[in-house]
């Protein structure tokens, strides 16, 4: 394990990346208000039957139809994944440790200050880094829901995600990786409160169940300040997917580590067996895996 060397910073940082971005949360609130106004207009009672009342009613219906059409065009339809997530919402995601290798400035280097960290594909290093992480492809999606407001999507929130490579090593910390930053990235939640990352399946290292770390920030601008977060937690990967992937070349060390750890013995997930952090997973080692988790905050 290397010393916690600072990450080289030769650019203008994440704040510069975000300087021209429009807040999607504000846009979502505007569109939501438009939908509510259209619905209210549609419920307005008709007139008494006079010519003036009929004319007014017709005009109102015409305006309502126009507003409704505009709202329908501008507001995306909720995906089946979001609909299911809202139906299951209610239990807030357990708070967990960020671990010793967060890379968010709270323990040594800070990748959040680097230009280029906002990205979907996190398999390769960016900036001064040049290494890429090898392994079985994994795409994971988090659906963020606001429990205090009826489980509406947290559009405009930001997620910083990171995890180890297939050898159980963390970029920015482990020996030979101090100048690399692969398997780390930030995404802004869309109007459905969802963020998706393209990565590789992490390995299992001694003492821990296979997992992915993440921090949720209220906004992209808040992602530059370590500690100012809405939630810090971890995604647990399913045993079936892990066993399948770890039987492939490159993951040999993970096989023995998996045999020594269970969700019930893991020092993070053992409180409840990871029931609220266990991802829904589909795929195969040959084709790659997808994982999804509802994150209620």
TrEMBL record:
Cytoplasm keyword on record: no
Oxidoreductase found in the keyword field: yes
Domain Intradiol ring-cleavage dioxygenases: 132-207
Key words of the record: Dioxygenase, Oxidoreductase
InterPro entries with a match to the protein in the record: Intradiol_dOase_C (IPR000627), Intradiol_dOase_core (IPR015889), TAT_signal (IPR006311)
Molecular function via GO: ferric iron binding; oxidoreductase activity, acting on single donors with incorporation of molecular oxygen, incorporation of two atoms of oxygen
Protein name listed in UniProt: 3,4-dioxygenase subunit beta
């Amino acid at each position: 394990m290397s010393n916690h060397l600072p990450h080289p910073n030769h650019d203008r940082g994440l704040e510069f990346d975000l300087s021209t971005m429009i807040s999607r949360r504000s846009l979502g609130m505007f569109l939501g208000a438009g939908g509510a106004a259209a619905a209210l207009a549609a419920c307005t009672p008709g007139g008494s039957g006079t010519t003036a009342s009929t004319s007014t009613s017709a005009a109102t219906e015409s305006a309502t139809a126009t507003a409704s059409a505009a709202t329908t065009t501008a507001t995306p339809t909720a995906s089946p994944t979001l609909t299911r997530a809202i139906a299951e919402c209610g239990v807030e995601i357990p708070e967990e440790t960020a671990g010793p290798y967060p890379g968010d400035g709270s323990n040594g280097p800070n990748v959040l200050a680097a230009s280029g960290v906002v990205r979907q594909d996190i398999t390769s290093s960016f900036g001064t880094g040049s290494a890429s992480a090898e392994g079985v492809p994994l795409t994971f999606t988090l659906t963020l829901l606001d429990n205090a407001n009826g489980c509406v999507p947290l559009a405009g929130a930001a997620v910083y995600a990171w995890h180890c490579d297939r050898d159980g090593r963390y970029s920015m910390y482990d020996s030979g990786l101090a100048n690399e930053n692969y398997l780390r990235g930030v995404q802004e939640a869309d109007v459905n409160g969802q963020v998706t990352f393209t990565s590789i399946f992490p390995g299992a290292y001694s003492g821990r169940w296979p997992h992915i770390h993440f921090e949720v920030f209220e906004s992209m601008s808040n992602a530059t300040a370590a500690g100012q977060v809405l939630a810090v937690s971890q995604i647990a990967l399913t045993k079936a997917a892990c066993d399948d992937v770890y039987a492939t070349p490159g993951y040999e060390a993970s096989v023995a580590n998996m045999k020594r750890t269970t969700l019930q013995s893991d020092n993070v997930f053992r409180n409840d067996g990871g029931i609220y952090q266990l991802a829904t997973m589909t795929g195969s080692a040959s084709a790659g895996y997808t994982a999804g988790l509802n994150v209620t905050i």
